[in-house]
Design brief:
alpha/beta; 282 residues; 12 helices; single chain; seven-stranded mixed beta sheet; 2 domains; binds S-adenosylmethionine; Rossmann fold
């Protein structure tokens, strides 16, 4: 299985500057690529991940870095429960190469496996949800999260004979171009990826120290829109300038970045990545 290559890590490190002595929240530990770069730079890190398959890597890093590293095995939407303050909060969203490349996780249409798609390995699988959702629910998911044109036809086909494996799902999609968007849309819905992001972002302003930065790397246009609109709201760009705004923490936008050709050539998963950031100015 391919090890996860961190995306836009140079841009993130460049945006953070010297991290020595900083306290950083890594919302998406994954293979620990970002976390390790922060720790190597001399920061202390609190890292979240809801996937139990990353626990071994997290333990390994814990042995190496001791008190400078703490792992939280929970969804990042619960970060508001932390009684802590950070110099930076970093999200590297979506799924990791380990998740997509492991056929048993049922995320990929490239290998035949049981339809699962649970990031945390707990709760109902996508297959269970096909029984619970109506054809209308499924069509809405395919349209909203995948921009899938034949959403209704695919949703009806799913409800007619619920697919149990990745290949059964793949085979009921007529146009091969729709396969990847269908799989991605279902994964996003099952794991409530947009809701998780919205809830986590709500906690960020209070968790950041003055001068602290929030950086988000996104891979999906809806994710990117949530981040862009939230940051706009915090910086006051979208707000009504006539309204008093004294109690809201003030933020400034940091230059957005996308991967250059060299990074995309080296790592095709970087293709759709966007990095956005804000700094809390007072
Ligand atoms: C793209 S990977 C992160 C890769 C990491 N930056 C690295 O360099 O190795 C995304 C990770 O975030 C985790 N994740 C996604 N949504 C999450 C959520 N709501 N709560 C906690 N972890 C989440 C996934 O399980 C996955 O391991």
């Amino acid at each position: 299985m391919m090890k996860h290559i961190p995306v836009l890590l140079d841009a993130v490190m460049d945006t953070l500057g010297n991290v020595h002595g900083l306290r950083i929240l890594d919302a998406t530990f994954g293979a620990g690529g970002y976390t390790r770069a922060f720790l190597d730079g001399g920061a202390s890190v609190v890292a979240f991940d809801r996937d139990p398959n990353v626990f071994d890597d997290a333990n390994f890093i814990k042995h190496q870095f001791g008190e400078r590293f703490e792992f939280v095995a929970r969804p990042f939407s619960t970060m508001g429960e932390l009684n802590d303050a950070f110099d930076a909060i970093v999200f590297d969203l979506g799924i990791s190469s380990m998740q997509i490349d492991n056929p048993e996780r049922g995320f990929s249409f490239r290998a035949d496996a049981a339809l699962d798609m649970r990031m945390s390995g707990a709760g109902p699988t996508i297959c269970d949800m096909f029984e619970q959702w109506s054809a209308g629910d499924i069509a809405k998911i395919l349209r909203e999260y995948g921009d899938v044109r034949p959403a209704v036809a695919i949703a009806n086909a799913i409800k007619q004979k619920v697919p149990k494996t990745t290949f059964e799902l793949r085979d009921l999609i007529h146009n091969p171009r729709d396969v990847a968007p269908v799989f991605q849309a279902l994964r996003i819905a099952l794991n409530d990826e947009m809701g998780e992001l919205e809830r986590a972002l709500m906690a960020v302003p209070d968790l950041l120290k003055v001068g602290g930065k929030c950086i988000c790397v996104t891979f999906h246009s809806l994710e990117d829109r949530i981040v862009k609109n939230t940051f706009r709201d915090w910086t006051g760009v979208a707000g009504d300038p006539r309204l008093p705004n004294v109690s809201r923490p003030r933020f400034e936008l940091i230059r957005a970045r996308t991967p250059d050709k060299k990074e995309i050539d080296r790592n095709s998963r970087a293709r759709s990545a966007h990095m956005r950031g804000v700094v809390k100015s007072y």
